[in-house]
Amino acid sequence: MGKWGDRVKLMNRIFRIISFMRFYLVDSWSNKRSIKMKKLVFLMLILILTGLMCAVSYAAWTSEDIGTTDKGTTVESGSNITITAGGADVWDVTDGFRFVYQKVSGDFEIIAKLVSLQNTNSWAKAGVMVRGSNTPVSWFAWSFVTVGNGTTFQWRLVDKERCWPDGAGLAGAAPYFVKTVRKGSIFSGYRSLDGVKWENNNSVAQPNNVEIKNIKDPILVGLAHTSHAAGTLGKSEFTNVTLTIAGTSAVSTKGKIALTWGVLKSY
After folding, report:
1. How far apart are CA 189 and CA 182, in angstroms?
2. Same domain, 50 and 166
């Protein structure tokens, strides 16, 4: 499991330390004054260790510009994540955009609500993406929202090849929830108005899932935005960002980006 397994092991050790400290600092002491002092120390330790767990989970997020694009930014404020991005497009055989991502192995789902998307072009796009690498020609799959051409699920099956499908997607614009799911070699895209009731993020004529072969874990999973206007920066605002990874049971949060380990739902 790589970094994920290491994090889970660390959290388990921390919980064991807390249990150990509780027994020796509280339960095994009979002097009332000592008990009061040790309880205070115990509570301080909990706060310190909780902060450590959150910091470990959060540290692996990376934000960078991919391909040919003006320098962008990523800022957290309150419950929102604002990305400023340039780039000509995520399309054809090479991409230009900004990516905020986590390295992930195995099955997962990532969800985010796109609150707003600046109108730099009717094809400006923002959503949740999975990608083989941070090279501009990498294979990818992502569920996204555009300014004026609806929402859709799109992919590049192999590095340096053209993207699919072509044309406008389903009717809709920000605010919208979007989701990308991996199960084995199958990637699927969904959308939702409320984050509860989900539907395929493609029309009946286009599939909402695709098989990508020869995947080499870990892969990159996160938020993506392209202004679709070379030389022009645009803003996108996300909230309710969650990444769920199958196979473990620990939960940790830091700031507005939450990492949740657990069993994936069926879609």
Report:
1. 9
2. no
Total structural domains within the chain: 2
**Structural domain containing residue 19:** 3-58
Shared domain check, 97 and 48: no
pLDDT tens-digit series, residues 163-208:
998 877 899 999 999 999 999 999 999 999 999 999 999 977 778 8
pLDDT, tens digit, 9 for 90 and up, residues 84-139: 999 999 999 999 999 999 999 999 999 999 999 999 999 999 999 999 999 999 99
**pTM exceeds cut of 0.85:** no
Same domain, 168 and 196: yes
Whether 96 and 145 share a structural domain: yes
- The per-residue pLDDT for 169 is 87
Instruction: Please check whether residue 38 lies inside any domain of the structure.
Output: yes
